[in-house]
Amino acid sequence: MSLSTLDKLQSRFAPQSAQGMDDVFQFHFSDAGSHYLVIKDGTLDVQEGEHDDPSVSLSMSTDTLKGIMNGEVNGMTAFMTGQLKATGNVMLATKLTSLFPSG
């Protein structure tokens, strides 16, 4: 994943939406390796690699993530059409757009 996409997530992070959370979002990118986001009580930590015990694991391309984050791709549609695969607490994935609002 390009650093700029991770930087965008950092700058778009909405700490007020993450109050009381203690979750790990694991991303497996078909075109950019693995990264994970640790969200804990309004803080965000982005790491490269695999987490031992993620709350939810999401597999997709970086283009799919960009599309979901900028509103061009519906996350549920991506899931239903196989562009996005999720395991673990799948409902947690629906919080991504509120944690990283687009504007």
Descriptive account of the structure:
By secondary structure, the chain is α+β, with helices and mostly antiparallel strands. The chain is 31% helix and 30% strand. It contains five helices and five strands. Strands 3-2-1-4-5 form a five-stranded mixed β-sheet. A hairpin with a 3-residue loop joins β1 (22-29) and β2 (33-40). The mean pLDDT is 91.
Question: Count the strands?
Answer: 5
Order of strands across the biggest sheet? 3-2-1-4-5
Per the principal axes of the C-alpha atoms, what is the gross shape? globular
* Mean pLDDT figure: 91
Main beta sheet: strand number and arrangement?
Answer: 5 strands, mixed
- Contiguous low-pLDDT stretches (5 residues minimum) are none
Rg over alpha carbons: 12 Å
- What is the ordering of alpha helices and beta strands? HEEEEHHEHH
Portion in strands: 25-35%
The helical percent reads 25-40%
Pfam family, one: SCP2
Domain SCP2: 14-100
InterPro entries: SCP2_sterol-bd_dom, SCP2_sterol-bd_dom_sf
Organism: Halomonas tibetensis
Write the layout of secondary structure elements.
Elements: H1 3-12, E1 22-29, E2 33-40, E3 43-48, E4 56-60, H2 62-69, H3 75-80, E5 85-88, H4 90-93, H5 96-99
Parallel strand pairs: 1-4
Antiparallel strand pairs: 1-2, 2-3, 4-5
